[in-house]
Amino acid sequence: MPEHDDEPADGLELGSVEVVEARITEALLPLAQPRPTTRGAIPPAPYLRRHLVEHAAAGGRLDERLLSPELLPYLDVPRVRQALTAAAPRTRSTTTVRAWKQVAHTWPWDSPAENADAMDLAQAAAGDTPRRRTPPGQWTTVWSHHSSSAGETLLQLAHHFGLAALVLTDGRPIAITGSWDNTVRVWDLTTGTPIGEPLTGHTDRVTAVAALVLPDGRPIAIAGSDDDTVRVWDLTTGTPIGDPLTGHPGPVEAVAALVLPDRRPIAITGSADATVRVWDLTTGTPIGEPLTGHTGHVAAVAALVLPDERPIAITGSWDNTVRVWDLDTGTPIGEPLTGHTDTVNAVAALVLPDRRPIAITGSWDDTVRVWDLDTGTAIGEPLTGHTDTVTAVAALVLPDRRPIAITGSSDNTVRVWDLTTGTPIGEPLTGHTRPVRAVAALVLPDRRPIAITGSWDHTVRVWDLDTGTPTGEPLTGHTGHVAAVAALVLPDERPIAITGSRDNTVRVWDLTTGTPIGEPLTGHTRPVRAVAALVLPDERPIAITGSLDATARVWDLTTGTPIGEPLTGHTDRVSAVAALVLPDGRPIAITGSWDDTVRVWDLDTGTPIGEPLTGHTDWVTAVAALVLPDERPIAITGSHHTTAAWVWDLDTGTPIGEPLTGHTSPVTAVAALVLPDGRPIAITGSADATVRVWDLDTGTPIGEPLTGHTDWVTAVAALVLPDGRPIAITGSHDRTVRVWDLTDARTIGHLLRVPAPVELTGFVDPLGRLSVVVAGPEGLARIDVAV
């Protein structure tokens, strides 16, 4: 532990505030340590949890003693964020703090143990050896392969399509987000907390947001919506300014704002009606006629005042072109800028330090282009590197006068570009698990440049553009998201996992060491979306995989080679797989497909058994299989857009009884189990965020739905523990994993928060430990669970 002298630092008087705060910190720090007991840890006093970090920051004592994995789960997150803004760069960038920044946005005040388990997983992903706490947590990360993001996950929101950023006159940086819930929200970027109530008024989703400081110092937000209107709010009061701006006969898809040289504030909007409109924000009226010329949706708008004080707008469109408009005259400047080969859906503009105005555009053609607005010509070659649509662009002049662009893409990454050289700066910024939909950039009052990004993964992330590269050990082998996982204990008692990926490959992992076994299994020509595993009667372990290429494949896991030819017959993607050994010793697979059918396969011969099972009227997305105590084999299937699960007699190929009804949204995950008392049950997860348990003898639900998840339940595993307790493990789009005791329909302990929506499976290893294999975008982890 660091030593600190009693003497004040050079230049400080003995009674200075900093010295006093440092002494307060030293006196309080021993009292802040959690006290372990056999039932858990006794947390520090609430005052210490809230305010010790403030004393430490004021006294120059914000160090690893306070910012430790043991103490951070107890501390008030906004106050820690506030304190870190003034901390030394080395303090802000320790492995522990970087891991904390990935998970703290979800931490509940009243469950420090839950926070500590999430911290363990984040630290393992960042390359730290997982800690062994005393007493241990409920969830113990054994190992994790996942790139730890260089950014900070600030918020978790649903469906935000607009993002803007602003530094207020008091120096506070804020972000403004627009959402599919029809609202606009304002966030303090220092603390990650909302400012005021949501801004309401739109009657459809908000798709574009801009922000501006008026000449009188008032900050405002301007939002466009699918309700065809534009609304303006005073961010000081949180109230609307004037009536909605109406005139577009189609959704407003892009908004920019500008203060003209004559100090009039204006907004420029682009619409699905293919026009651009200019609005006087003082009067709430349109300026001139709509700007016409584009032949497709206007999907992006930027605005700029040129060095000669002429205001211009730059627009990108579904017609693949970029147009520049003189806002004084309402006329186009020059010819359209051509070069992109697909929709231009992102635009930013900047005046370089040499006074040249430029525009930066992103397109569905996966490229970024830079344009000289004086000449109307492209500068250099297109910027390439993104592997999917460039969906968002921001631009910034750094304090050292280097101009940069920040781009977000449907490849889930953020890239930073040096606009002087046309080259990327560093590696792509990774951490988002779905397409990056919005980007904004700011220079903070302390001269640090940051980027703020919003994604379809429901998160807003903040990136320090001066520092930070991803840490930790990335998932090696797969080059795409892990989309399916199964676990198996081999005859020699080694536990393994089998993963399928969007890179079309299958990998096998040693769950004890976290290392891949052998080379990737190749053969599928499209992403692998479903995996099941089985030990054959002759003790050979096999895997069965389903793919978007409409085939299933069988693999010998001992040799890493395919068994026979692909199983063909489905006419669309194979989205679910289960496997079973029949009472007569024959191994079979059951596959569900987007062709709305279920097929049963004899794995000895590689041929279908009987006709396809029909009845579903939409994609079959979940399959489980079971041998009943009377030795009848059955399958349970769930379907997209269908709220019921079906039970099938695999001997006859016919449904058993009526479908299992009760869910109010599609059944997205299924597992099955024979209880110790001999009763067969099914466990279903649904897009209605609930889990249901069914008695398969009667076809009726057992008890009430299991509630707690707040989004789609996408994964279910079920097993009987060595002590005879039946449990289910569920994963959800709400980024949590939960364990349920099926004996009395209750959760066991607290949930585990994970970085992204998950695929998962559970197993009991030979030592009797319950483990969960959590897989997701570019990540895989083994986590032991104390139950």
TrEMBL record:
Keywords: Repeat, WD repeat. WD repeats lie at residues 156-197, 199-243, 245-289, 294-335, 337-381, 383-427, 429-473, 478-519, 521-565, 567-611, 660-704, 706-750. It comes from the Bacteria. The keyword rRNA-binding does not apply. Pfam families: WD40 (PF00400). The keyword Repeat applies. This is WD40 repeat protein.
